Amino acid sequence: MKQSQIFIPTLRDVPSDAEAASHQLMLRAGYIRQVSAGVYTYLPLAWRVINKINEIVREELNKTGGTEMMLPTLIPADLWRESGRYETYGPEMMKLKDRHNRDFLLGPTHEETFTKLIRDDIASYKKLPLHLYQIQTKYRDEKRPRFGLLRGREFIMKDSYTFHDSYESLDHAYSEIWEAYENIFDRIGLDYRSIIADAGAMGGSESMEFIALADIGEDTIAYSTEAGYAANIEMASSKFNESKNTDVQLEKELVETPNASTIEELAELLAVDKKEILKSVLYVVDGEKPVLAIVRGDHEVNEIKVRLASEGELIEKATDQEIEDLFGGIPAGYVGPMGLPEDVLILADEYVENMVNSVSGANEIDKHYINVNSGRDFEADQYLDIRMVQEGDLPPNGNGELKFATGIEIGHIFKLGTRFSETMDATVLDQNGRPIPVVMGSYGIGISRLLSAIVEQNYDEKGLVWPSSVAPFDIHLVPVNYNNEAQKELADELYERFTKKGFEVLIDDRKERPGVKFTDAELIGVPVQITIGKKAEDGIVEVNIRETNEMIESKKEEVLDMISILKKTHEEEKEQ
Ligand code: 9G3
């Protein structure tokens, strides 16, 4: 491809409003341009990388029996009313009306659309299992789109759905696709972890996230220093690590605590450690169920765990109005478990159960109780792990200790079970001719987000450094002066030879100063750059391996062999 023909608008200066390295570099290297917040143009080089990624995804999914197809992005709201999800996602869902004023949405994901497809056209278990997938543009009106392609409002996702007549069949597909994901991310060359994740509002039983490690990542994972445990911070648990507290229980006492509505102020005023204070937080689950969560003063409540224990789909901190209506109007900062309305579900963390003579809110302004003891002064409906893990905690298996890392969620797979087939009545007749709800799985990869993840793990101060498996080109020929006879001749010869060998070659045939050509080549990040300069008469070129920045002068015959070796290793990677 001639660089004078392909549109690569590189920038000299760093765009000020781009914080993430991948965002800055993809703008500077002429890969993307923003059209509106979280909505991007994929310029030719980015589009080539996306197609390379898609090819790897297709190869690996087709190996597991997946079939590619394409569903509509424009979806009738009625379909999402059937699953009950049309209202669930609120402002995040892009909604619109057609000319007949009928409600439509731009698809953020496609469980409903695929379930309808199966409901309409699959009637017997004999036609199952099925693995269908699409690589499609999705829409989610994120509140805070940021970091370029990392969190967009329009993005490309590969979403797969599997359909089964049994959970065993789902388990088999789930592990096969899990393995396909690992092959995909390994071939791309990403440093990633697969971790236990929260299935969120997807219901279902189990879900795994794939996290590419990156400082800019919005996901925090907890992993054990001894292999064998990694989970999304919201799902991570730790092994209870305390001996029984045998302190003598003292008489509960009401004390004046004016203006001490935070744990810190209370610890200061009563001269106690935060560990001796009960932290009580009020929630409302699914908009109606009042829940009080209690953790030790130096711990944080894990809302996902509270939601799961309350068996709800949506959890929110109680608003002032709800505190008024559902909790009897307790003043914030003085909340405690004593004297609450009967129907409040009280969940206490396991460390709370082992506390003796602790401080607790008295549900009255400027008042707290001291020497409060669970079991005597209040009873929790459940004592269970509802705290956020902390670095240094013991992993659940007790080996090593937990460490945190940030990363970018690049994939997420779910065992949905019958959550959608039941609400949408998608059944098949089983071998006894009885209708059973289809068992489903759903599996996503963030294709456009992968660009950012790959760049976050592969760049240097000069620009992008693409792994050869997904690079927009294999070789970047840079004749210093394309008007010079010898340089042009050698460059064209190499172009022909490499192209014939099946390499994808970009040749900088522009009439630009050398400095511009070199800076652009370093920004664009093609794995192998070959500079053809003064020594062209002697058939000598400079080979630059972008990843290591090593420079090798070599005769044109050698460089052909060297590149063939590169291509072979590249082919071998694909075979694996
Ligand atoms: C929505 C909106 C945003 C959403 C969803 C629905 C996330 C939604 C979860 C999933 C689950 C899986 C198939 C591929 C893998 C992920 N954000 N999710 O369902 F209406 Cl606005 O998308 N879907």
Descriptive notes:
With 576 residues, the chain is an alpha+beta fold. 27% of the residues lie in helices and 29% in strands. It contains 14 helices and 31 strands. The strands form 8 sheets. Strands 3, 7, 8, 9, 10, 11, 12, 21 and 24 form a 9-stranded mixed β-sheet that branches. Strands 16-14-15-17-20 form a 5-stranded mixed β-sheet. It has a 5-stranded mixed β-sheet with strand order 28-27-29-30-31, sandwiched between helices. Strand 22 (427-429) and strand 23 (435-437) form a beta hairpin. Helix 2 (44-63) crosses helix 5 (167-188). The longest helix is centred in the N-terminal third of the chain and has 22 residues, at 167-188. The radius of gyration is 29 Å and the shape is globular. It binds ligand 9G3.
Count helical runs: 14
Alpha carbon gyration radius: 29 Å
How does the helix and strand content classify structurally? Answer: alpha+beta
Average pLDDT rating: 94
In this entry the ligands are: ligand 9G3
Please state the overall shape, judged from the principal axes of the Cα atoms.
globular
Helix content: 25-40%
Low-confidence stretches: none
List keywords for this structure.
576 residues, alpha+beta, nine-stranded mixed β-sheet, five-stranded mixed β-sheet, 14 helices, 31 strands, binds ligand 9G3
Compact description:
The protein is an alpha+beta fold.
Per-chain topology:
Elements: H1 21-28, E1 32-36, E2 39-42, H2 44-63, E3 67-68, E4 74-76, H3 77-82, E5 95-97, E6 103-106, H4 111-121, E7 130-139, E8 154-164, H5 167-188, E9 192-196, E10 207-213, E11 219-224, E12 230-232, E13 253-256, H6 263-270, E14 278-285, E15 289-296, H7 303-309, E16 315-317, H8 320-327, E17 345-349, H9 350-353, E18 358-364, E19 367-372, E20 382-384, E21 402-417, H10 419-423, E22 427-429, E23 435-437, E24 439-446, H11 447-457, E25 459-460, E26 463-464, E27 475-479, H12 485-500, E28 505-507, H13 514-524, E29 528-532, E30 540-545, E31 550-555, H14 556-575
Parallel strand pairs: 3-7, 15-17, 17-20, 27-28, 27-29
Antiparallel strand pairs: 1-2, 4-6, 5-6, 7-8, 8-24, 9-10, 10-21, 11-12, 11-21, 13-19, 14-15, 14-16, 18-19, 21-24, 22-23, 25-26, 29-30, 30-31
The structure holds ligand 9G3.
Ligand 9G3 is lined by residues 89, 92-93, 108-109, 140, 159, 202, 412, 414, 442-444.
